[in-house]
Amino acid sequence: MYQYIKFIMELKQIEKISKALSDVNRLKILQYMQKNQGKVECTKACNLLDLAQPSISHHIKKLVEAGLINQHKIGRNYNYSLNHEVWDNYMLRLQNL
C-alpha cells in the first residue's frame, strides 16, 4: 500500500512539472536560464519576454511551485536558479514510465 501511495505522489509531481512546462513563456525563461549558467534575475526575465512584470512573476511562480527552479531573495530582489535535482529526477521518471 505504501509503495502505491508513493507512486501516486510521484505521478502528481510529474503532472505538476509537465503542466509547468506546457507554456512557451516558461520554456523561454528556462531556456534563457540554461544559457546563463542556470540563473536569472527577475528584471532580466522581464527584458527577455515581451510581457508585463506581473505576468513574468506568474510564470516564475509556476516554475517554483513545480520545483523546477529555486528562488533566492537578495535584498528586495529575487534571483532564480535551476533545480538540477528535480530536473534529473523528472527525466528519470519519464524514462521509466
UniProtKB/TrEMBL annotation:
One of its GO terms (molecular function) is DNA binding. PROSITE patterns: HTH_ARSR_2. Residues 8-97 form the HTH arsR-type domain. Pfam families: HTH_5. CDD domains: HTH_ARSR. Keywords: DNA-binding, Transcription, Transcription regulation. InterPro entries: ArsR-like_HTH, HTH_ArsR_DNA-bd_dom, HTH_MetalResp_TranReg, WH-like_DNA-bd_sf, WH_DNA-bd_sf. This is ArsR family transcriptional regulator. It comes from Maribacter aquivivus.
